[in-house]
């Protein structure tokens, strides 16, 4: 006989199929193969805890209502009445899941208003083919049935025209034919129904008048707790033409004054749209925007290192507090480079440089409103300023004449004041040059010198560089000191010798020859006493020479020109006196004599063509003054300035005029004395005359005519020359 010693092994079966949902009945079966009809008891183990059965049953089936906590690995073992045991079965995993979750969504958000349509949407995931149920109330829930007020479309139940009695709690759930057969009930949602229709409040971000060219932001205020709304905007009237926004703000662009007026708003939501009441009308006042005016001090053309002030002026009524936005032109002619924003209307650049150059604009701002942008002003920054000096009519003059020095700043003419210097010393009367000119009238000998000017402007002051030098040469009408030139002419050939000496009618000691060449004043390099000798002239010796005393007095300046060419111009006299004869000679270097044929020019124009090599003007006048030169086939001379003076009045003529005037004065005095004497005689005679009685006893008061033989009242007047002879 063979005995089977293997123990039977059970198998655990689960019903229903996986997955299992909470609340469902689960049946576990412990099937022992080959167990026969023997009575078994069954031990159940969870999560492999085989030493301690979870429970013991006398039947092979074990049922329970599933919960999520029942999830785990299950196994079983059988035991016979004779204490024989089977093996432990393989573990079977049981997974218990929650039922699908239901979520109730109410639109619009709480609260709602009477008359609105309220949508209750039941959302269940992830399964489909649900039948939805909606319930009202928390304790004694009422299932909502379709009616005129309750309509269902898909997973949404709509309450049409909400009333205050609809205020309550609502929840939903889902049912279906397949597992899972139901969902969890949703959480309850409270619905609040308000009787009064809401009214929004319309507001503007602009206090006071809005300016054209700006925008005004309108806000349609609703209580945030009322949820989401669309907003509708109305201009000038409550007509159907409106604009809709999803937010409660509306940007109103002010293009013209006509954009001002009344505005309204209201909110709406849902389908069909539920509208709130209209807001109160808001008046938007629009005025023309003022235009900013940008000015630059001291000028639009400035120099490195100057202080520049940009000023933004806006003509606007009231005491409006403006702030100012300053911009400089960026790329593509767009004003993208904001320089600064200030609370004052001036922008100061303490020390301007090249990178400050550009086109500037300014704009005034009042909170959210802006003025019109100013016209662009171009700021040009140049290198250091340079003063330049000119003389009018010319630098050579005779004492008593007038001359004007003119100082200008290259590239700029605004806001400058000027200072003048003579021989490096600032002139005390520089204030006369505040307008850029310095006039000497009448010119005197002490005005001879080398002049420069300098300009300044701004606070702190910005100074230009000194101008180039401008000499003024004032010659005396009659001077005791003379500069004697040998050879006596203004133009000289190079390599020739030249002697200059100062001769004083009283004493030549203390006088020295000075010269001005190449913008510099020097003493003659070869000075002996009051004489200067230049052995070999060169063009660098060209200049003005004069006599100067130890105290600085300057006398008799003369222009000396040294020419490398073959031809020079020689004047017979210098200076020329009006009415005299002037002869100009054209000399050649080799012969040192007049050239046979020469053309003579004045101020660049041909005046004479002479075959004798000389030109004569018999009666010189002031109109003959100017620059002269001659031109021959051998070359051209340099230019010489020919000055013309008025003739001097001789001393004898002056004495004669004085004596004549004295006699005239004495004669006038005699006539006055004679008239006074006659007047006194008449008065005396009238007082001495008495009335002559007539035979009738009457007297005549009338004056009697002169009778023959009467004394004549003029008999006492004797001419002075007759008295002298007597």
UniProtKB/TrEMBL annotation:
What's a GO biological-process term for it? immune response
Domain named Ig-like: which ranges? 8-93, 100-192, 198-267, 290-378, 386-469, 557-643
* UniProt GO cellular component terms: external side of plasma membrane
Give the region (Disordered) as residue ranges: 682-726
Entry's Gene3D superfamilies?
A: Immunoglobulins
Q: Where are the transmembrane segments?
A: 652-675
**Where is the sequence biased in composition, kind Polar residues?**
686-707
Q: Which SMART domains match?
A: IG, IGc2
Compositional bias of kind Basic and acidic residues = 712-726
A molecular function (GO) held by this record is: transmembrane signaling receptor activity
> Per UniProt, which keywords does this protein have?
Disulfide bond, Membrane, Signal, Transmembrane, Transmembrane helix
Report the protein name in the record: Ig-like domain-containing protein
Q: Which organism is it from?
A: Culter alburnus (Topmouth culter)
């Amino acid at each position: 006989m063979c005995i089977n010693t293997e123990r039977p092994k059970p198998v655990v079966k689960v019903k229903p199929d996986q997955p299992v949902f909470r609340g469902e009945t689960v049946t576990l079966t412990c099937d022992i193969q080959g167990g026969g009809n023997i009575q078994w008891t069954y031990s159940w183990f969870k999560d492999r805890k085989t030493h301690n059965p979870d429970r013991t049953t006398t039947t092979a089936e074990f049922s329970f209502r599933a919960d999520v906590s029942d999830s785990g690995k299950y196994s079983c073992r059988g035991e016979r009445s004779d204490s024989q045991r089977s093996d432990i079965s393989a573990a079977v995993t049981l997974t218990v899941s929650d039922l699908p979750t239901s979520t109730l969504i109410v639109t619009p958000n709480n609260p709602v208003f009477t008359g609105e349509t309220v949508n209750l949407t039941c959302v269940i995931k992830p399964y489909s083919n649900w039948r939805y149920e909606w319930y009202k109330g928390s304790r004694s829930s009422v299932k909502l049935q379709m009616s005129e007020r309750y309509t269902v479309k898909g997973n949404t139940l709509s309450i049409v025209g909400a009333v205050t009695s609809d205020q309550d709690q609502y929840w939903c759930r889902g049912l279906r034919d397949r597992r899972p057969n139901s969902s969890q009930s949703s959480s309850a949602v409270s619905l609040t129904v308000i009787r009064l229709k809401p009214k929004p409040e319309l507001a503007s971000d602009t206090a006071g008048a809005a300016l054209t060219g700006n925008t005004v932001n309108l806000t349609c205020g609703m209580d945030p707790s009322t949820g989401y709304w669309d907003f509708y905007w109305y201009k000038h009237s409550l007509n159907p033409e409106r604009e809709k926004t999803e937010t409660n703000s509306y940007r109103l662009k002010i293009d013209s004054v006509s954009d001002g007026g009344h505005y309204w708003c209201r909110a709406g939501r849902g389908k069909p749209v539920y509208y709130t009441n209209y807001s109160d009308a808001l008046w938007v006042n629009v005025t023309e925007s003022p235009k900013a005016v940008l000015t630059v001090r001291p000028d639009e053309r400035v120099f490195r290192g100057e202080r520049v002030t940009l000023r933004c002026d806006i003509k606007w009524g009231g005491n409006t507090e403006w702030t100012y936005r300053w911009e400089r032109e960026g790329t593509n002619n767009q004003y993208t480079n904001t320089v600064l924003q200030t609370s004052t209307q001036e922008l100061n650049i303490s020390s301007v440089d090249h990178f400050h150059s550009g086109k500037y604009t300014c704009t005034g701002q009042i909170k959210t409103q802006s003025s019109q942008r100013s016209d662009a002003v171009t700021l040009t920054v140049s290198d250091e300023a340079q003063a330049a000096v000119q003389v009018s009519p010319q630098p050579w003059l005779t004492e008593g004449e007038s001359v004007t020095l003119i100082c200008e700043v290259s590239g700029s003419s605004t806001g400058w004041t000027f200072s003048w210097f003579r021989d490096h010393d600032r002139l005390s009367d520089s204030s006369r040059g505040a307008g850029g000119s310095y006039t000497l009238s009448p010119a005197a000998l002490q005005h001879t010198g080398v002049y420069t000017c300098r300009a300044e402007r701004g606070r702190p002051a910005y100074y230009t560089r000194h101008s180039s030098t401008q000499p003024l040469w004032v010659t005396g009408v009659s001077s005791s000191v003379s500069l004697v030139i040998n050879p006596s002419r203004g133009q000289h050939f190079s390599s020739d010798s030249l002697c200059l000496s100062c001769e004083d009618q009283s004493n030549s000691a203390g006088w020295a020859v000075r010269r001005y060449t190449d913008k510099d004043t020097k003493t003659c390099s070869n000075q002996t006493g009051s004489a200067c000798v230049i052995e070999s002239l060169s063009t660098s010796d060209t200049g003005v020479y004069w006599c100067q005393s130890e105290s600085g007095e300057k006398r008799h300046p003369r222009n000396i020109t040294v020419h490398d060419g073959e031809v020079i111009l020689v004047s017979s006299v210098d200076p020329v006196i009006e009415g005299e004869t002037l002869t100009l000679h054209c000399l050649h270097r080799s012969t040192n004599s007049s050239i046979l044929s020469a053309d003579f020019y004045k101020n660049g124009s041909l005046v004479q063509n002479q075959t004798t090599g000389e030109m004569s003007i018999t009666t010189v006048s002031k109109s003959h003054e100017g620059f002269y030169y001659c031109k021959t086939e051998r070359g051209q001379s340099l230019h010489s300035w020919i000055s013309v003076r008025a003739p001097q009045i001789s001393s004898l003529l002056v004495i004669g005029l004085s004596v004549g005037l004295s006699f005239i004065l004495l004669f006038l005095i005699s006539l006055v004395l004679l008239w006074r004497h006659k007047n006194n005689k008449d008065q005396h005679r009238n007082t001495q005359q008495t009335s002559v009685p007539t035979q009738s006893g009457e007297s005549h008061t009338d004056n009697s005519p002169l009778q023959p033989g009467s004394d004549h009242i003029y008999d006492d007047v004797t001419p002075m020359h007759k008295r002298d002879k007597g």
